[in-house]
Amino acid sequence: MNPLNRIPLPALRAVEAVARCGTLRAAADDLGVTPGAVSQQVLLAERQLGLTLFERRPGGMTPTERGREITVLLSQGFARIGAAIARAGRDLDNVLTVSVAPVFAARWLIWRLPRFQAAHPGIRVRFDADLSLLNPSAGEVDLCVRVGRGGWPGVNAERLFPQVIFPVCAPELARSLRTHGDLAHVPVIRETRANFGWQDWLGPEGHPDVVPGEGPVFSDAMLCLDAAMTGAGVYLTFETLAVDALANGRLVEPFHGRHATQNHYWLVTAEDRRPGRAVRAFSRWLKEETAAAGLGRTRGAAPPP
Q: For residue 289, what are the domain limits?
């Protein structure tokens, strides 16, 4: 006998909603019914299962240990049902939703997107600017572009190119930087959320003992880059953020070396379904675009004069 036949679906929905919302009233608002109806459905589920799923307290309802095990699985199941319904209403061959880190989207991707649109005028691209790794199997996102070390469970991740870092600064400030040791005597811009540090660049350069100077601190990489363009200091940046500012001369590289961190850029897709035409087209275009731009190439420190 199919276990789903033991309990009506509304009862399972009520159990999941109470566990997620914490009270009968909040669950009722979420489901669009009355608190009494939710309570009856929860009692029905408990009776059919022969388990007490919740501890009733004055402040709300807390899942029991067995209740937590069950409601976690219910939440995952209803999320997948919701994703299936959402996908049924979409034209998957013509609409593409891409989750991408805001910095990569704003400073690199959107400036090249017209080339994709020119090559694929029938595909409409929607961007979800988000730092978290979303699972394309559980929502409306078709494809993620992420930076990290990979090895994420439950998804397919295809490596694109390594994250490459190097210092940049305004042209006038670069005149003060003749040796690596000069970094200790100039302002250095730092990002609090960076996934790399100065030793990731100074070590491969052969100068691990250099301690860069103090300077402005920001929580956003784009603000750090903009500050560097104003001449506020030297910034240890990553390639996709700085490539256009270097090309237009707003920034320069005071040193020759470019070194890879342990992170890579990845294309992340659902593990449990075959990519549609739009996903395949965008993936192919992004790989060609990044390869043509030479992203991920490293170079050693300049030889001593």
A: 95-299
